[in-house]
């Protein structure tokens, strides 16, 4: 029997049949790179190919970063006489098929961009009413990932059904080509996309555009999710805190093949501290957002590399159970900054093999001691402490404890050639998914994915840690009970 999700949109009641997208793609959140927040319209064949080689050279490809996504400004300003796109020949002299083929030869996948409007956000030809031609072009160019924006939509928005139909038209056109492509909606969270995005796409943007700020408010990010949850003008310049608070009510809508997209990663762009960047990366992994690096890889520094190459955090993103963490605790009674902002949060999520992720997030203006009892960590399995996990003992593992050192990261970035880099990776015994997938590594309890044991929690006990200002503690909990108890918990999580 098909599932009907009833969407109430303003004064109109619309029924849309929703089935989770099942194109076999993005069964765990996509990992890759997108140029927008580092180069904007300064795009070229050299940029894409140079970046792709850096993904290989820095070992990021071998940690799962496989999508190289070219954003706006790649096209000519006019379509050809048949209504098809024309790539800018000055920027891409060998054409898009050449770019895709080169990426494929390097073991990478190619992503491109358009908007579900008359124009793209930068004013180039959009795909609204040109879905068939544009999908044919994408397929002919061997594109693997398609980001579809929301600018200049000719007023075809304002209800869930209107936006659904506009985005479904491109989804149908992509499917008609016969080429598998990850379909990524960039609809800014408008028109309740979290209730229908999974029926046609592999991911959907759930808020306005992020920017490189941890908590700072900005008038351009106009929605206040607590006072106006139906806001339809989400805007831009949304802080990490805004995005997290906005997604918290429907983080559970993600599922294998269909993900809440929290926007491109800001790590390495500047504007945030090292601790803020670590928290940012960990939360994106925990909530199961696609992780597309947003910084310019040509100028990557050691601290940035050692954040985004942490296999213990990436294993959270790529966990085969594919269940997003949820916010289970929030405290607003903490020291505020000059903008009157400050809070702490606890996020908790099921992992494969009966493990549990817990993130203690401090967005207060001072160091805080954050504590959370097991009954809250496992509240989704039963309130009031009735969850079975509340009655067993747990080991606590710190997932940042084995972060690559600055010295080793600098050795990789400064290596004279591939042989020298490979020597560093071999000495470090660094994780490589081409040798051992995250799924198999987690099954084997590979220590490179487990973190470092730092403590234990007795049955019905409490997890507590001191967390620096604007930072997060990220823990994997592992049961220490007998194998039969652990298996019962794992089975419950997998149902």
Would you give an account of this structure?
The chain is α/β, with parallel strands linked by helices and 495 residues long. It folds into 2 domains: 18-317, Aldolase class I (TIM Barrel, Alpha-Beta Barrel), CATH 3.20.20.70; 326-402 and 451-494, Immunoglobulin-like. The protein is built from 15 helices and 18 strands. The strands form 4 sheets. An 8-stranded parallel β-sheet has the order 9-8-7-6-5-4-3-10. A 6-stranded antiparallel β-sheet has the order 11-12-13-18-15-16. Strands 1-2 form a two-stranded antiparallel sheet. Helix 4 (131-140) packs across helix 5 and helix 7 runs parallel beside helix 9 (311-317). It is globular, with a radius of gyration of 22 Å.
As residue ranges, the low-confidence spans are 1-18, 482-488, 490-495
In percent terms, what proportion of residues is strand? 15-25%
Determine the N-to-C terminus distance. 20 Å
- From the 3D coordinates, which CATH architecture of the largest domain would you assign? Alpha-Beta Barrel
By oligomeric state, this entry counts as: single chain
Indicate the structural class: alpha/beta
The count of β-strands is 18
User: Within the CATH hierarchy, at the fold level, what is the topology of the largest domain?
Assistant: TIM Barrel
Instruction: Name the average pLDDT.
Output: 92
Order of strands across the widest beta sheet?
9-8-7-6-5-4-3-10
Largest sheet: 8 strands, parallel
Can you identify the CATH class of the largest domain? Answer: Alpha Beta
InterPro entries: Aldolase_TIM, GH, Glyco_hydro_27, Glyco_hydro_27/36_CS, Glyco_hydro_b, Glyco_hydro_melibiase, Melibiase_C
Enzyme class: hydrolase
Protein name: Alpha-galactosidase
Family: Belongs to the glycosyl hydrolase 27 family.
């Amino acid at each position: 029997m098909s599932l009907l999700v009833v969407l109430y949109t303003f004064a109109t009641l619309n029924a849309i049949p929703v089935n989770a997208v099942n194109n076999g793609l993005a069964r765990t959140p996509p990992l890759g790179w997108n140029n927008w927040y580092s180069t904007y319209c300064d795009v070229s064949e050299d940029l894409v190919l140079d970046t792709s080689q850096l993904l290989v050279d820095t070992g990021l490809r071998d940690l799962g970063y496989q999508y190289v996504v070219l954003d706006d400004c790649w096209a000519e300003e006019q379509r050809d006489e048949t209504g098809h796109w024309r790539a800018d020949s000055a920027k891409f002299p060998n054409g898009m098929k050449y770019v895709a083929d080169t990426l494929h030869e390097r073991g990478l996948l190619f992503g491109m961009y358009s908007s579900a409007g008359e124009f793209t956000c930068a004013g180039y030809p959009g795909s609204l009413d040109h879905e068939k031609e544009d999908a044919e072009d994408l397929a002919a160019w061997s594109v693997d990932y398609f980001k579809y924006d929301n600018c200049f939509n000719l007023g075809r928005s304002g209800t869930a059904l209107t936006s659904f139909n506009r985005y479904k038209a491109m989804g149908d056109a992509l499917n008609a080509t016969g080429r598998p492509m990850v379909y990524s909606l960039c609809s800014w969270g408008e028109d309740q996309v979290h209730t229908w995005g999974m029926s046609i796409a592999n991911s959907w943007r759930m808020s306005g555009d992020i920017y490189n700020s941890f908590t700072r408010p900005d008038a351009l990010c106009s929605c206040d999710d607590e006072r106006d949850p139906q806001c339809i003008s989400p805007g831009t310049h949304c802080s990490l805190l805004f995005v997290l608070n906005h997604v918290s009510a429907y983080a559970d809508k993600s599922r294998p093949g269909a993900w809440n997209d929290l926007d491109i990663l800001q790590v390495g762009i500047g504007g945030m501290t090292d601790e803020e960047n670590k928290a940012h990366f960990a939360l994106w992994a925990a909530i199961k957002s696609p992780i597309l690096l947003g910084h310019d890889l040509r100028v990557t520094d050691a601290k940035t590399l050692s954040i985004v190459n942490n296999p213990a955090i990436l294993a959270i993103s790529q966990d085969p159970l594919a269940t997003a963490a949820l916010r289970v605790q929030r405290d607003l009674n903490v020291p505020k900054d000059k903008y009157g902002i400050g809070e702490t949060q606890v996020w908790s999520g099921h992992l494969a093999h009966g493990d549990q992720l817990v993130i203690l997030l401090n967005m207060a203006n001072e160091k805080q001691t954050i504590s959370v009892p097991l009954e809250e960590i496992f509240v989704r399995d039963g309130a009031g402490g009735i969850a079975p996990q509340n009655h067993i003992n747990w080991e606590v593992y710190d997932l940042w404890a084995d972060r690559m050192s600055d010295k080793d990261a600098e050795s990789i970035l400064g290596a004279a050639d591939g042989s020298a880099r490979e020597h560093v990776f071999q000495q470090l015994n660094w994780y490589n998914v081409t040798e051992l997938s995250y799924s198999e590594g987690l099954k084997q309890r590979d220590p490179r994915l487990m973190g470092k044991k730092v403590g234990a929690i007795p049955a019905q006990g409490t997890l507590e840690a001191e967390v620096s200002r604007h930072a997060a503690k990220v823990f994997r909990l592992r049961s220490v009970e007998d194998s039969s108890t652990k298996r019962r918990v794992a089975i419950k999580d997998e149902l």
